[in-house]
């Protein structure tokens, strides 16, 4: 068991070092076990975790909600992610969102906190924006801290009764982190485009392409099937770095509980748990 953990850590260290000379290693995940169980294809999902995944999708929320999420990425506490967010619809239209996300552990960590706003223009189109404050820090003070500000713009269009399209761009201005040693660390610029298609009243299909400006594109496919009004089954696939995903969802009145696990062919499993509580 220890040998496997050491192998994972060495691989992650090598992967980070390959990209940290020019680009920031600031972590920007997709949150929510529902989307994770569909290989993170979430840019066109109407979901409370849209606060972080695509702010434009918040526009269709009509209830206040509190959302919690935890991921034990690759079964290592050093790469775990904790998230808390909330959605607040306004009586006169528009929706506000708040979020706090933490990645890492004692020796290294990253914090992302911010404010979102979304507005729907009828049922066919919505737009949203999120503003983030970023902080990266090491356990040893000698290595210093990095901080910065950035923003994200998202859009959604309902193409037909069954088909929707979502688009989001993170850090479009190519902003940088402020570092202790004046090294330019770029915040990642990420573009995501996706479709969601309701095959039937009980089955939903979602797909997405993600392009980080410094990496090759990632393709994602996911499906969700409603067994009954309380129980959901989901699965997904992403490539070229093959990662399989599966999960279940359980709805109890105002509480939604989602569990998922992603499997990377090299690094192993990443279990995730999410809670969503809504108030009318």
Structural account:
The protein is mainly beta and 280 residues long. It is 9% helix and 55% strand. The protein has one domain: Porin (Beta Barrel), CATH 2.40.160. It contains three helices and 16 strands. The protein has a 14-stranded antiparallel beta barrel with strand order 1-2-3-4-5-6-7-10-11-12-13-14-15-16. A hairpin with a 4-residue loop joins strand 12 (218-226) and strand 13. The N and C termini lie far apart (47 Å).
Rg over C-alpha atoms, rounded to the nearest angstrom: 18 Å
Order of strands side by side in the largest beta sheet?
1-2-3-4-5-6-7-10-11-12-13-14-15-16
The CATH superfamily appears as Outer membrane protein transport protein (OMPP1/FadL/TodX)
CATH class call: Mainly Beta
CATH topology heading: Porin
Q: What is the average of the pLDDT values?
A: 88
Number of discrete helical segments: 3
Could you give the distance between the termini? 47 Å
Give the gist of this structure:
By secondary structure, the chain is mostly beta strands. Helix content is 9%, strand content 55%.
Q: Secondary-structure map with pairings?
A:
Elements: H1 2-19, H2 33-36, H3 50-53, E1 64-72, E2 80-89, E3 95-104, E4 108-121, E5 125-138, E6 145-158, E7 163-170, E8 176-179, E9 185-186, E10 190-198, E11 203-212, E12 218-226, E13 231-239, E14 243-252, E15 255-264, E16 268-279
Antiparallel strand pairs: 1-2, 1-16, 2-3, 3-4, 4-5, 5-6, 6-7, 6-8, 7-10, 8-9, 10-11, 11-12, 12-13, 13-14, 14-15, 15-16
């Amino acid at each position: 068991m220890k040998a496997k953990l050491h192998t994972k850590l060495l691989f992650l260290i090598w992967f980070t070092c390959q990209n940290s000379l020019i680009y920031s290693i600031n972590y920007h995940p997709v949150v929510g076990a529902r989307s994770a169980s569909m290989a993170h294809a979430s840019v066109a999902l109407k979901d409370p975790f849209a606060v972080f995944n695509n702010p434009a999708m918040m526009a269709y929320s009509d209830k206040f909600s509190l959302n919690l999420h935890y991921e034990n990425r690759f079964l290592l506490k050093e790469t775990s992610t904790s998230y808390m967010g909330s959605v607040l619809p306004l009586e006169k239209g528009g929706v506000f969102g708040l979020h706090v996300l933490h990645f890492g552990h004692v020796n290294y960590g990253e914090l992302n906190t911010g404010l979102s706003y979304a507005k729907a223009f009828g049922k066919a189109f919505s737009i949203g924006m999120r503003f983030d404050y970023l902080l990266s820090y090491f356990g040893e003070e000698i290595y210093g801290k990095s901080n910065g500000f950035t923003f994200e713009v998202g859009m959604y269009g309902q193409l037909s009764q069954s088909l929707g399209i979502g688009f989001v761009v993170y850090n479009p201005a190519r902003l940088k982190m402020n570092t202790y040693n004046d090294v330019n660390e770029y915040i990642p610029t990420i573009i995501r485009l996706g479709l969601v298609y309701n095959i039937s009243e009980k089955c939903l299909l979602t797909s997405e392409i993600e392009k980080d400006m410094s990496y090759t594109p990632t393709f994602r496919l996911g499906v969700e099937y409603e067994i009954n009004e309380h129980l959901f089954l989901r699965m997904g696939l992403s490539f070229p770095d093959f990662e399989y995903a599966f999960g279940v969802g359980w709805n109890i009145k105002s509480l939604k509980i989602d569990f998922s696990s992603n499997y990377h062919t090299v690094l192993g499993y990443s279990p995730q748990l999410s809670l969503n509580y809504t108030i009318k």
